[in-house]
Specification:
73% helix; mainly alpha; elongated; single chain; 230 residues
């Protein structure tokens, strides 16, 4: 297919050179740090943020814990679906990496031989960020911020055009939002079943938060005894 932004006389390529040009002026150690952060660090940070959100939700033990957990489970699932959707998109567009068609770029990561559009890293991080926002706005804002940072890093590293990143953001967001109602309908009953289980209910609700909410629990039995005594 026709390659996007082959010419250097368009805003996409101009912005690529402007952002990647920062790497040329930066110290070597900073470029190495950006390489690690852009390739692995922000992905790990997103995973830790999801885990932190899960811990916060289960500890709080709100009445809507099951639906919140369903949204939280949907976030990584949506990221996986978005990456799968990206496979045919990459094959259809067939856009080479920018360093293959443009000279003078400071490429911080070697060995990138696949197509450029759209960015998997941008897709995954934005899907996780938007998914987190559905589950919890505070964590979601942080997640979206990390996704934006990831997009910047991919261009800074010279491995993606800005439009690759924007396309990844759009793809990740679209998959999360468009399939969210179906995911909620399927995952919420599962999370409610897990919540009511005496063995794995702690996954959805902490023990202290769940006291008295599981049928047959100690607090519910005591409440029934008080009702009978009355």
């Amino acid at each position: 297919m026709a390659v996007i932004a082959e010419s250097g006389s368009n805003p996409d390529v101009d912005l690529l050179y402007d952002i990647n040009g920062l790497a040329k002026d930066a110290p070597h150690w900073f470029d190495r740090a950006m390489e690690f952060v852009g390739e692995y660090g922000l992905l790990v940070a997103m995973v830790l943020l999801v885990v932190w959100c899960w811990w916060s939700v289960r500890r709080r033990g709100a009445e809507d814990a099951a639906s919140t957990m369903a949204a939280l489970v949907w976030a990584p699932l949506a990221a996986a679906v978005a990456v799968l959707v990206n496979v045919p998109i990459r094959g259809f567009v067939e856009r080479p990496r920018p360093f293959l068609t443009h000279q003078g770029l400071d490429v911080l990561v070697s060995g990138k031989t696949d197509y450029s559009f759209v960015s998997d890293h941008a897709t995954i991080t934005m899907a996780l960020g938007v998914g987190l926002f559905i589950a919890n706005r505070r964590f979601g804002v942080a997640g979206i911020g990390l996704a934006l940072a990831e997009g910047f890093c991919r261009v800074y590293m010279g491995v993606h055009y800005p439009t690759d990143v924007v396309g990844g953001f759009a793809l990740g967001t679209a998959v999360v939002l468009l399939l969210s109602p179906l995911a909620a309908a399927l995952l919420t009953p599962v999370m409610k079943a897990v919540e009511g289980s005496p063995r794995v209910g702690w996954i959805v609700r902490g023990r202290s938060a769940g006291v008295g909410l599981v049928p047959g629990g100690r607090a519910s039995v005591e409440a029934e005894e008080r009702d009978l005594a009355a």
